[in-house]
Records
---
Amino acid sequence: MKTTRLRYWVLACSLGAAALPIPAFCKTLAYVSNSIDGTLSAYEMSESSGALALLGTVSAGKVVMPMAVAPSKGCLYAVVRSAPTRVLTYAIDRHSGVLAPLAEAPLPDSMPYVSTDRSGRFLLTASYSGNQVAVSPIDADCTVTRPALQVVPTGRNAHAIQTDRSNRFAFVTNLGDDQILQFRFDAASGRLLPNDPALIKTKAGEGPRHFVFSPDNRFVFVLHELSGTVTQYALDATSGLLTAVTSVASVPADSGLVRCVVQAPITADRLAARAHESARTTISAADIKLTPDGRYLYTTERTSSKIALFQVEASTGQPRFIEHYSTVSQPRGIAIDPQGRFLVATGEKSETVAVYRIDNGTGKLTEVGRYPGGKGANWVEIVTLP
């Protein structure tokens, strides 16, 4: 009897309400970092409607920005970009979803991106202003307490770092030098080793920023901040090397926006003040996410405050632009719940958090509601417990 209940619980939590009724012990949480307030907000998401209920906020530090959830779902990592630059570890309560501070560790620079390797043993961070990436050890209890064990110089403006789904390869986007670094990743030691070739170039002036892997690990989709294009790369499973396949615009030609020209490195203080800037006329693409089944791709553009929807062709992996949606002001971060039912968007100039229902047949978004948030909201993570 216990075995039957456990199987039902696992299946229901993973498939969501569309497949099976959600048991009371399944809980979906959304966490938002508020860079100006220096706090993290925790919300419980309704399994049926997607509506958010604020559980509370915890203190972090000014210019707290990127976050990542441990694969075990036991910890959340939040990076503080103001001095002293550091990563904070919070425990995620298994029953309530409330955050509790556990530990902190120094980081070698101001890091606008953080992820874990697929095993959850190493924390990976990228520094835009420091032109470098770092690997920090994660302790057995999922806390980060020690300094980085490896720091690797990159080209200008390293903006994101992730390992692929096999955990054998890692990639780093360099916005300022229009290139993507290719590494082999030693999952035992956490060390990054240059692949051969060590990098590939993107088109001049595109500014590669964030990227996502297809569920089958065959493709990588890269969002370019300065041009607003999405480029599909084929990922060789044996060599770990990327090959460009196609590029698609996420910003319409008649939008009135022009391509941005990369400026000097942005300081932490400059980032904190960005939420108060007047409207810009340049393209400023920010985030990119795929639904768990890989059928729909979403990107954000901050100047126009829009979310773009793409449909991904199943056999070729090629994205096709569908339409835009107006959203919160200056949307920096978006996330999709693990069941692929809802998308959450946060805006650096908005003090509300927006939730959208994802149509399973078309990928189209329908707004569920907007909920009170903090100042300078920029990053969102969603996790389903247990």
---
Amino acid sequence: MRLRRRFKGDEMKMLPRTSPLKPKRWQKAKDLKAAREAFKPLSTSLIKYLADNKVPKGTYYEAYCPMVKASWLQPDKSVKNPYMGKSMLTCGTIKE
């Protein structure tokens, strides 16, 4: 997985040992549904990390899907829902 390569090593040791940013849960996912569930705490942690470190808005956008009651980050304001698949790719809103 692309995410695994990005966070592998955590050379700066910025992530807590139990962080969902560590990709182990993703590696163990047996199917897409399990991978999507593992994505929820990952997104929550990233959103909190960016807010805690005062990363400026406009660098990323937080989107929210009311159907799965979960948020995610994306690079632009065009909603691309990672939880609902192709059938509901644009379901969600950008949080301001």
---
Amino acid sequence: MLQNEFWSTFETVELEPHGFTQAGSDVVVPNTAHMRGRDGAEVIARSTFVYTVENAQITRIRMFRDEAEALEAIGVSE
């Protein structure tokens, strides 16, 4: 499933970031997502995004279960 398809299944999506860690061109953003489905069901999910920024533009977005996994993926130890 493509990212746009995933987000479009929800009526509302609010992302609450919990800080930022920059490592080279990568920015790690732990977050909590508050989502409401089209049928009214509410979901709260925690994850960590890694944004790769090149030439002032986001060129890649990856999602991980937690911050430790995201940091390991980009070669940074906690």
---
Amino acid sequence: MKIEIPERKKLVYEMRIPIRWGDMDAMGHLNNTSYFRYMETIRIDWMRSIGGMPDPAGEGPVIVNAFCNFYKQLEYPGDVLVKMYVSGLARSTFESWVTMERVDQPGVICAAGGATTIWVDFPAQKSKTLPDWMREIISD
């Protein structure tokens, strides 16, 4: 199954992540849990860059699902170019999409995944309408 990033997506962030020796598994390629760490890393870096870090006493983003499809093995040594896109803006949620490719093999997607993010009022433990500043960043 091949993941398709929606046509109406918006590239919001990209970064390079070095593949660490300790991220490998017994088969000599990147352990599947590391792909989720890479997606988490770009998501957190992006949130920090836009001032969207969660406030446990207030509000912020929560991931309610995450997935990853693996197409081509990533192996040590090397750097991964990770790109994050957003789409599917709704009242309290949006979708994020991530692609991963080796820096030395531009355009060859090795893995792609995503997550659904919901904006939450933490003390009330309820979803909350996305703030206007976040809606502006996500919308086309």
